[in-house]
Amino acid sequence: MAKFEEIGTASIPGQGTQLRLLQRNDEFSIRIVGAPGDLMNTRLHGSEDALAELACERVAGRSGVRVLVGGLGMGFTLAAALAALGEDAEVVVAELVPGVVEWNRGPLGAAAGRPLDDPRARVSLGDVGELLRGEPGGFDAIMLDVDNGPEGLTRRENDWLYSPRGLAAAQQALRPDGVLAVWSAGQDPAFTERLRRLGLLVEEVTVRAHRPGKGARHRIWLAY
Fold this sequence. Notes:
It is a single chain. By secondary structure, the chain is an alpha/beta fold. The protein has one domain: Vaccinia Virus protein VP39 (Rossmann fold, 3-Layer(aba) Sandwich), CATH 3.40.50.150. It is 25% helix and 33% strand. The chain has seven helices and eleven strands. The longest helix has 11 residues, at 46-56. Keywords: Polyamine biosynthesis. One of its GO terms (biological process) is polyamine biosynthetic process.
């Protein structure tokens, strides 16, 4: 079997950590420099697809839907959101790492069908938390796939996003009857309780990393 070859690196703003983009034939992997294993892999995106599908099915019937994807990653959540929504929708994707956007516009983009080329997609470079604070009542759905979920790995600042204050900012950024969807690599009962303390109704859905029904079990919270 062919070996992965590094085809790019990207620095995470605000810290010394770097991401690596690796390729093996038509398979891509994003890894954290110095950390074992994949952060993301193009073979395993079932739960990223499900994040968008579960959130967008609740708002897809509305006109002029505007949704936010927190974290571009490999583009699969963005692609699934675009597939689920109408032609008058706008999907804003917030990505902190400029290099990740460049990868999605370049060699990585074909894996998810080049969703950034869709005219309904708009990239916001920077911290998704700042975007949430700046757009109260701005979105019908907010999908957060940042870091490893509430238990982050790559950036300590992500802790704010999943804190009571960060979640309150997300709640305020929703339009009436909007939905907040949060992806995580695993369960987190304390996070569930945090959402409920904001007065939100919470559903927890277990999804698989690889479809159909294979791979690691990941968790998605739907709060509204």
